[in-house]
Design a protein that fits this description.
The protein is mostly helical. The protein has five helices and no strands. It has helices spanning 2-22, 27-41, 48-61, 69-88, 93-100. Helix 1 (2-22) packs antiparallel against helix 2 (27-41), helix 2 (27-41) runs antiparallel to helix 3 (48-61) and helix 3 (48-61) packs antiparallel against helix 4. It starts with a helix and ends with a helix. The relative contact order is 0.17.
Length: 101
């Protein structure tokens, strides 16, 4: 199951990276997302907890500026995936609160 999630999240992060580049987004954000994609690609993310933490950080650091439709859409896909993973973790609201604060 984790391998399937990694493939999907890698594709979503690549879409986000493309949108950031197209919108001439901040270089630090672009670099961080590129490093996150590389970490997933190279197998450095091995557990669901590591994936959840990486995804949470990417979502936080890459929030789009206004009026960047592709960036907003790509970011929204990752945010949605993050929420779905948190809710399916089975630890209830404690996990949701811990990861969204």
């Amino acid at each position: 199951m984790l391998n399937i999630e990694l493939v999907v999240i890698k594709a979503e992060m690549n879409a986000l990276l493309d949108a950031i580049r197209e919108a001439n987004g901040e270089r630090g954000v672009e670099r961080y997302v590129a490093e996150a994609v590389e970490a997933v690609h190279c197998g450095k993310v091995e557990t669901e907890i590591e994936l959840l933490e990486l995804l949470r950080t990417v979502v936080r650091r890459s929030r789009p500026p206004l009026l960047s439709t592709k960036w907003e859409e790509a970011w929204g896909n990752l945010f949605y995936h993050l929420i779905q993973m948190i809710l399916s973790a089975g630890t209830g609201s404690r996990t949701v609160i811990a990861h969204l604060l």
